[in-house]
Amino acid sequence: MIFGDQLDLDAPLLQRLDPDRDLILMMEVAEESRHVASHIQRTVLFLSAMRHFADTLSARGFQVRYVTLDDPDNSHHFTTEVERVISEVSPNEVLCTWPGEWRIVREVESWSERLGRPVTILPDDHFITSIEAFSAWAKGRRSLMMEFFYRDQRRRTGYLMRGKPPQPEGGTWNFDSENRRSFGAGGPSPPPPHPPAFARDRITREVVATVRRVLPDLPGRLDEGDTFRWPVTRAQALEALEDFIAHRLANFGPYEDAMWTATPFVYHSVLSPALNLKLLNPRECCEAAIRAYERGDAPLQSVEAFVRQLIGWREFVRGIYWLEGPEYAQRNGLGAHGRLPDFYWSGETDMACMRECLSQVIEGAYGHHIQRLMVTGNFALLSGVHPKAVSDWYLGMFADGIDWVTLPNTLGMVMHADRRQDAAAGVTGLVGTKPYSASGKYIERMSNYCDHCRYDPAHRTGPTACPFTVLYWDFLIRHRDQLSANPRMRMMFRSVDAMSTKTKAQLTIDARALRQRLGVEST
Ligand code: SF4
Predict the structure, then answer these.
(1) CA-closest candidate to residue 407, choices 422, 424, 388
(2) What Å distances lie between residue 478 and 64, 335, 337, 435, 504, CA to CA?
(3) Distance (Å, rounded) from C-alpha 48 to C-alpha 231?
């Protein structure tokens, strides 16, 4: 069995198969687009990439049983589809690769008894660090810091290391302080080159037609053009990687946190969908970037930032996901119970920053990491939306949404919901040591969104009070008891404590009215 996010021709599973004897099963099941509302582009990406992959396997001589979305006998659930095939071919054994979601792991683990035959789950060696290796790394540590995990990853891989004993290239582990540039008043000049889109071939066109017919209510938009944004084959994924290395990597580091109207991709790689479907391997991406540095085509600060995302953050959040178990999804450390406002699905809001970032998601199933963390995520954190509602939205609405990456990024990084007692640092988040809460002033500094907004990020009262700014102060006031002991937040709380009681009371009242007006809270 090969799931839709396991399109890796080098996977151990394929090495074990005998094309003359074994049957590969791949399934398009509607359940996967319905258990959370899945953006039409995300759904098309998965299904088109799966169909291309199945064709490649067939061309290599494998026998593939492929269940399409519009197969009249399709029950649209993995387990019942596996049962259907087993009743026909009665295999001795079922094999698959470790899935990307606890929900599916639990399902697969039930099969052996249900199907009456051995079921073997093979490790996913796409990742540099196995689940077991991450557990061993975490065991006995007083606190789990991404930075220390990342340094160990650098030592293990030898990426950007030099000398004996190996030291970080450039004499430092990171260049974060140099990588927070915003664009000047005139914006990026020249505009950053767009990543490539790919010709919509017969398979993708068929998938689009089928998805529109079978799943007509999916959120998000997909035009009827001749191209599709996301790579659906290994060759296209490699082309996207090459394009990033040649045209955007050099500026990626300095501007990785910058945002600008009508510039959705800035200098980001936009490779996460291809990586998460396993069309690309993180090692080849890192090595391509390092070669560009060695040729003098990209500065160290950009290459290090890219490598950090891949072998640091990406593998760290995956480690946390499997380490913490399925209960992690239920964490709600700040006790947030608000609704996700309707404008997350429509983009219709008078907040220019939210309108820009949400429209981009609806139109393109994409937002870069600062748009996710500091705009759409920051708003959800400040206004008190339930973390699971936010996490489900990120899982379904982004082309790269897979549970192992979306859940810890959303619950941990964005919503600070995974708070726990830490021996070294007191109460802190597991993924992030403090909430990434920020007022409208941060958005003003990092983008031009505020230039086109009816609100003013400096105002916290009156008709032009920026919702981010009002909600930011209210967030600090509401969570003072939970957060003020965190040393990284002391400065913020000094500002709160300097406010008069009357000012704080007014902010609490204004924020409550705002949450009601925006649909987070009922009246
Ligand atoms: Fe967003 Fe506030 Fe700036 Fe408007 S003023 S764009 S709401 S941060």
Answers:
(1) 388
(2) 56, 11, 14, 14, 10
(3) 9
Q: Report the separation in Å between the CA atom of 355 and the middle of ligand 1, taken as the mean of its atom positions.
A: 10
Pocket mutation for ligand 1, best pick of 442, 443, 445, 456 (most atoms within 8 Å of C-beta): 443
- pLDDT tens per residue across span 502-523: 999 999 999 999 999 999 998 7
Q: Are 216 and 43 in contact (CB under 8 A)?
A: no
In angstroms, the CA 180 to CA 475 distance is 25
Q: Is the CB of 446 under 6 A from ligand 1?
A: no
| Count of CB atoms situated within 10 Å of the CB of 326 | 15
For ligand 1, mutation pick of 468, 473, 517 (most atoms within 8 Å of CB): 468
Of all protein residues, whose CA lies closest to atom 6 belonging to ligand 1? Answer: 450
Closest approach atom of ligand 1 to CA 452: 6
468 C-beta closer than 6 A to ligand 1: yes
Measured CA to CA, the distance from residue 207 to residue 68 in angstroms comes to: 9
Detail the DSSP E strand segments found in 147-213.
161-162, 167-168, 198-199
- Ligand 1 in contact with 450 (CB < 6 A)? yes
Asked if residues 410 and 378 have their Cβ atoms less than 8 Å apart, the reply is no
How sure is the predictor about 422, in pLDDT bands with cuts at 50, 70 and 90? low
- Whole-model pTM over 0.90: yes
Nearest partner of 511 among 502, 521, 501, judged by Cα: 521
Residue 443's region, left for phi above 0, alpha for psi from -120 to 50, else beta, is: alpha
pLDDT band of 45, cuts 50, 70, 90: very high
Q: Are 279 and 231 in contact (CB under 8 A)?
A: yes
Task: For residue 64, give Cα distances in angstroms to 1, 24, 51, 130, 277.
Answer: 10, 5, 11, 28, 19
CA neighbor of 400 nearest in space, from 273, 213, 266: 273
- Which atom of ligand 1 lies closest to the CA of 352? 6
DSSP type of residue 489: G
> 389: part of which helix (H) or strand (E)?
helix 387-397
CA-proximal residue: ligand 1, atom 8 (nearest): 440
Taking the CA of residue 444 as reference, the ligand 1 atom at the shortest distance is: 3
**Structure confidence by residue, pLDDT tens digits, 262-298:** 999 999 999 999 999 999 999 999 999 999 999 999 9
Closest C-alpha to 218, from 405, 32, 75, 385: 32
**C-alpha distances in angstroms, 137 versus 25, 133, 213, 315, 369?**
35, 6, 48, 12, 26
Position of tokens 């032009």? 464
d(CA 99, CA 82): 15
Q: Which residues contact 416 (CB under 8 A, 6 or more apart)?
A: 333, 334, 381, 429, 432, 434, 435, 436
